[in-house]
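Milestone 3.1: sequence recovery, worked example.
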């Protein structure tokens, strides 16, 4: 057993309790007990527990990165200035341009960075899903993995050319099925699979209907991009005379299994449709802001849509994305108070766990839940004084302030160094 003591626990439980001078006991991959340091050290013998002081540290539930393309770490510092998603930019390498080995290396890089900055769970969607999953197993990061499924040739998208390739769609769909069969869907496993249709404009109706049929056999999350560009909306309107949301609904994919990333160009009626169907919106604050746009997540939350956060491409710094979500949200809302830091923290903890169907297992520090824990060193100039622990995290913390990470009860980051478990 491991005992983390003398720290502050931001539980994110239903009562949103923040426990000072407390201890948390890990047994195998679960949180066995929580209480005051004195009570826990009296209850458990010194010989039975590896006691680790967390004085000056704050323990958070593992941060959940709900939308990322780890092997797209190859586009860092380039795609940000091209104004569009890398998939729609001709001069940026596409997933099928990478070899298996290259995809593995860049996925290892992207996931290691995400974990170093506090992401204990990533939802990864890109080409070469099988080798990407091997990278995640090497690191010991919790992940749900999908193949990037589409039947439009991406090499023409940069020129606004939509060329359907049925053979390509069939190949990618079969790769996604192979992922589901190989990795399985048992969430007790660290790395599992889900379905990954790329976007409404890059998947034909025939392909989306095939994916809908698969959901009967595989009741897993479905990750996609939605309303991420005007080009997407224009194409779907021209071909199907529908909004992107209506199109997905017509294909039977609008439900509480769907994690829709971006949502920058959603109209009010489409937001309401998403809310009615229980769809989860994955906010991409940093990536979208760099492209000069931001999603109306405050309005979506008010409508009842569950909102989580993903880092997409870039440095996979989830703390920086929390701050960007707060800042961009306040600019969008013309508000100096909304969203508040606690709402932002919910988006990377309990909201994200709900989106992935794992709220009973992760997303908060509670007895019986999986031991996915992020320890942040608050003994820093820029985090002192600390009168509001969540406010300090979202407004002031840096990714490098993450000191230690536990995933499934195993230490994967120690003193800022990525250990890996594979």
């Amino acid at each position: 057993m491991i005992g983390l003591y003398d720290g502050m626990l931001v539980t994110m439980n239903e009562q949103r309790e923040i426990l000072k001078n407390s201890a948390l006991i890990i047994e195998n991959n679960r949180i066995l007990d929580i209480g005051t340091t004195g009570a826990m050290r009296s209850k458990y013998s010194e010989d039975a527990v590896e006691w680790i002081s967390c004085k000056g540290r704050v323990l958070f539930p593992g941060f959940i990165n709900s939308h990322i393309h780890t092997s797209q770490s190859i586009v860092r510092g380039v795609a940000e200035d091209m104004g569009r998603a890398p998939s729609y930019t001709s001069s940026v390498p596409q997933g099928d341009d990478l070899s298996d080995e290259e995809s593995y290396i860049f996925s290892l890089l992207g996931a290691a960075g995400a974990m170093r900055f506090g992401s204990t769970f990533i939802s990864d969607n890109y080409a070469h899903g099988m080798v990407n999953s091997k990278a995640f197993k090497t690191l010991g990061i919790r992940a749900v993995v999908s193949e990037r499924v589409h039947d439009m040739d991406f090499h023409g998208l940069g020129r606004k050319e939509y060329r359907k390739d049925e053979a390509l769609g069939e190949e990618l769909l079969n790769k996604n099925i192979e992922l589901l069969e190989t990795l399985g869907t048992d969430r007790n496993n660290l790395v599992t699979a889900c379905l990954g249709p790329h976007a409404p404009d890059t998947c034909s109706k025939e392909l989306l209907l095939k994916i809908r049929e698969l959901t009967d056999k595989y009741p897993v999350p479905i990750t996609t991009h939605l309303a991420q560009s005007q080009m997407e909306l224009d194409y779907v309107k021209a071909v199907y005379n529908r909004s992107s949301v209506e199109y997905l609904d017509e294909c039977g994919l609008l439900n509480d299994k769907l994690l829709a990333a971006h949502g920058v160009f959603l109209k009010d009626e489409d937001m309401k449709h998403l809310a009615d169907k229980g769809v989860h919106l994955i906010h991409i604050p940093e990536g979208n802001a760099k492209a000069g746009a931001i999603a109306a997540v405050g309005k979506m939350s008010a409508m009842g849509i569950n909102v989580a956060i993903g880092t997409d491409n870039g440095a996979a710094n989830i703390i920086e994305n929390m701050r960007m979500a707060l800042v961009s949200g306040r600019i969008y809302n013309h508000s100096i108070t909304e969203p508040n830091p606690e709402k932002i923290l919910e988006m990377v903890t309990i909201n994200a766990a709900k989106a992935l169907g794992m709220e009973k297992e992760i997303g908060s520090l509670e007895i019986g839940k999986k031991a996915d824990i992020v320890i942040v060193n608050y003994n820093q100039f820029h985090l002192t004084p600390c009168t509001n622990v969540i406010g300090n995290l979202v407004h002031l913390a840096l990714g490098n302030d993450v000191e230690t990470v536990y995933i499934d009860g195993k230490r994967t980051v120690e003193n800022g160094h990525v250990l890996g478990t594979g």
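The chain is about 35% helix and 20% strand. The first strand starts at residue 2 and ends at 10.
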